[in-house]
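Quick one: structure for this chain?
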Amino acid sequence: MLEVMTSLFLFVVGACLGSFAVAQVWRLRARQLEGLKQAHKKYDKAEYSRLHKLVGHTVQRDRSVCLACGYQLRWLDLLPVVSWALLRGKCRKCRKPIGLAEFAAEMLLGALFVVSYLFWPYQLATVPSIIALAVWFVLLTALAVLFIYDLKWSQMPSKLLYFCVVCAIIFLICNILQGSFGVAQIPSLVVALVVLPGLYLALNLVSKGKWVGDGDYILAISLALVLANYFSAVMTLFLSNLLGCLVYVFIALANRQNRPKRIPFGPLLIVGFLLAFFINWARLGLTL
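Got it. Here's what it folds into:
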């Protein structure tokens, strides 16, 4: 019974953070456009006109609003999953579509929180293990923001990328303190860092950013530190590139006259990482 109640609680927390993640995507984009405008650089004026209302508020006054009409959302409009379903994915005032990103982020992050708790490979009986799980939840939320941002604009905010690296370092330290990572695993970690960020950094340097963006190898650093073994790193590399090929073929077949020159790789890298993370648990004898 306690496990069921805890899972329900974590789903709600994850769903709330999913909603928070989507809100931060738009705020980060608004700040980016504001920065481009102030620097007198090229920016999308129509997009800025729609998002500028999100810039300039203090934390206390930063309230969620409808991007179409500016309606300030009430608490009834912010209930994770429930509000979206009751309003049928539309603004309460102007009835313009809100989009599936909010609903998908709430559902998926809530589900990931529950799955992570139920199949966490270490006993939650020590402080380092509990902190590691909490950091994992924070990292999942940050990855959700990066996933959506890169999917929309083929960019990833550098500050958030470095935040993920910090989270990954804390996660690794917790694993060291609880004895799940020792001296014997260091060579495997080194190989993981060479396989993931090392490879993407090399591709970035060779192509001068045309094949792989700066954000991809920085993101890969945090993922390699969390995985901390070469098997999962190679699995992440294989799965993310396989998914990339499948996505490209699907898009090319669906739209043969306008084939994509480039697809954002960050979301593929994140999905490959999550799959490899859970596959590694199964490899260690943990039934998912």
